[in-house]
Every structure is written in C-alpha cells, then in structure tokens.
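We modelled the chain as a single entity of 509 amino acids. Its sequence is:
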Amino acid sequence: MGLERVKYLLTMAGVCAAIFATSGKNMELPALRNQGGTLTYLPDSLGNTLPDYSFCGYRLSEFSIPEIEAEVYVPLTTNDATQAIQAAINYVSKLPVQKNGFRGAVLLEEGTYSVQGRLKITDSGVVLRGSGKGTILKAIGVNRETLIRVVGSGNDEMLASTDVVPTYVPVGATTVTVKNAAAFSVGDKIKIHMPSTQKWINSLGMVDYGGETGWLGWKPGQRDVIWEREITGIQGNTLLINIPLTMALDPHFGTASVTKYTWPGRIAHVGVENLVLVSDFNPDNRKDESHCWFAITMEHVENGWVRQVEFKHFAGSAVALYETASRVTVEDCISTQPISEIAGQRRNTFFNMGQQNLFLRCYAENGNHDFATGFCAAGPNAFVQCESYNAHNFSGTIDSWATGVLYDIVTADGQALSFGNRGQNGQGAGWTAANSMFWNCSAGRIECFAPPGAQNYAYGAWAQFAGNGLWHDENSHISPRSLFFAQLAGRLKKAPAVYQQEYLPFGGE
C-alpha cells in the first residue's frame, strides 16, 4: 500500500473517530431520539412508546446501596458453622430497625466456613457480609437445598378493587383510568392485572404448536400479567402511577383491573455481600447433582441486593429472584465452574422472575441460560453490562411472556441472545418477550422476534441476526453507550456523565 494511501486512511480514521466522539450517532431512531444526551420517545399510531427500563434495582436505583455497620462478628471455626452464622443473623433480626430501615450487618472474617445446614434471612434490615474473597462459605454434603434463602412472608392482602375503563392504555403509559377511584389514595400500593384470555391466546397463536401439542398450549388464566405500582396522583377516576406499563391494556382482549394491597410480611433492606459461596460435590463426577443447587434465592423481598459475591460449583442458579422479589440489585458477581447435568432447570445462573430488578456487571462461565428472564416477569427488568462465556444455551427470555426486559451492553460469547417464540420448548413457553430491548449487545446470534400486537427491539447489535423485531444500526454502536443509565440520568435529571463510571468503556476498535 502506498504512503499516500496510508496517510489518507489514517486521516479518515481520525475524522470518523472525531465524529463518533462528538455526535455518537445521535440520529433519529424509529422509537427513540437522542439529542445531546436527551432521550425523546416517539410513539406509534396507538400511542405505544419504548418503556423506561431504568425503574429497576435497589430503591429503583435512585440511591446507592449503603454500607451498613456490623452489629455482630462471627469468628472462624473448623466445625460446622451453620448454627453460629444463623444465630448471628437471628440476633441482628431482633435489633430495632433504625431510621435508614436497617438493623445491622453480620460480619464474617476471612477463612472457610463449612455450612452443613442452610441459612435464612427472614427479617427486614439484615445484611450478611464477608471480608472479601478470603471469606468462603462452603455448602457441605448432599443436601440440595439453597445455601442462603432471603425470604419474607407471602401474606399480601388484596383490598379495594376496580376495573379499568375499557379504552386502550398504551405501552409506556403512566396513567390508568378506572371505573371508580373513590377507594384509592395517593401513596397506595396497587396491582394492575391484565388477564390472559382465550381471545388473547388465539391472537398470539398459542393454542397449540402443531401435532398433538394442544395440552401444552396456553390456557386462559395461566399467563396473567400483574404489575406492582404506586399511586402518585389522582385526577377524578384517573390514577397516576410511578412506573410506566410494559404492555398495553387492550380491552379487545379482556378487562384489566386495579387492586390496592398491603404486604406486612414482605421484607426489605436486606443484602448479601463481599464473600465467596461454594458448593461441595463429588470430584469423581463432573455431573454430580447430589449437592447444593442454588446459592442465593430471594422471595417476598423488596429493596435488597447481592453484590461482590463469587459463586462456584452450584447446579442451579447463583442468584434466583422469584416472582415476589422486586427492586433488587445483583451487581459485580461472578459464577464459574458449575457442576450438574446439562438439562432443564440447571445452570440458569442469574435468573429473574420478579419485577423492577437489576443485574449489573455480572459474569458467568459454563452456564446454561446465564442471564435469564422467566415466566411472565412483569417489567421493567434490566441486565446491564453482563457477560456470558462458553455457555451451553442462550441468554434472554426463556419462558412465557416477559414484558419490558432490557439487555444493555450484554455479551454472550459463543452463544445467542434471544427474544422469540420457543413453541413447545420449555414446557410450551411459546412467545417469551414483549416490548423488550437488546441495546449495544454482542453475541454469536441475536434473535429478536416480535409477537403479534407487541414489539421487540435490537439497537446496535453485533451478531448474526434473526427476527422480525425492530432493528437499528446492527453491527454498529449506538449512543448512548448504556440505555439504562441514559434513561436513569434523564429520569433523575442528572447529567449522563454522572453514570459513566457505572459501566466499563468499550475497548475495541
């Protein structure tokens, strides 16, 4: 190549780099416009807009996860440490709740604690903390039960209820008009319920999957979508809600309802942090399943977290957030060397069935569905800058009809990211995602299929492609780098630069 040609290419590379640095491809997108860091949502003909996915994580990511002072210290022992650690948890659980919502932390020193039993956190305000990578909890024996269960009580009580007025309520709406708002007040916690009717199932083609699969097809009432929201204002019979809807309420398919509820047994302000969790296993059997399956699970929980935890050798999930877990952040966690068969219900490494949950900067090796959204998860939910390496299956929505899921700067090295119709797979999962987004993601393959009556998006995707969803700038980079943090900055009226330290910069060319 001649010298002049080299000079030309270098000059043009510099120009392109300068343009990218200053403009960041700030162009009008089919559903979103970015002008100088300000995001504008462009509605379709029915008023549906891209959801704000940033309403996720501990306290909706409006506050940082706090550092809680330790109230009790558990010294290292060579014997079974189950009772000692559980006694410390129980002690802190009886302390008074402080103004910040916490009772205190249980601190473990460096060293390996053998746990032949299992641990539970069942009260609000309790944090279990290690002293770093030197603190190891090892689940001993053939007990398959979860190592650490964070679980409240499922004693939610439904109070006043009313139907939604039969008008179309679009995706992204923050107002819902009901037939009678007299029993509701600002600050009430509500559940918005969209029923799964036969008419809706028919419209999606989920009655059967061909052949003799009618028994696997969707049935009315099996896949209702239920959002948890709070009332921020009332104007006549119109309720203003704190978080946008991630699916349209279409009266053509059934009548939605709004119900006020209380949940005295749901625990809050709980966390597990700064340690290593390991499962014992039979070293002569790399598919051994007679050992601890799940490292951490959360149920009947809100405003919690798991952070800076490393996981090894578990058969099921490193962290599983079930449908009653909300506003939980899982951040800076690493899972490697799982031990199990390669089959269903195994190695769903970071798994979410709840709503308003955030997985941030997590890494997984040799899993199955590493970053997985489960059955009818009512969004928003977000996975931000997560990486899957050498997985045995795809990451994405793995079960029926999750709505409002964001995969933001997620990498699936050698595997796929998928929103689609799984048909009879996954016990008849069928359509798995609606109104969900892949943003600046990379994978061996990205599948972005849109179900009838809804949309899915893939912007700035690096992969082989499949699907009829809305694609934009595939094999390119979209600005902002992170949609989640751009939306969060916009919502909290902060400069986007405030959150740049929350995700690693792009290190490629």
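As a brief sanity check on the tokenised model: Residues 1-29 have pLDDT under 50 and may be disordered. DSSP finds five helices and 36 strands in the chain.
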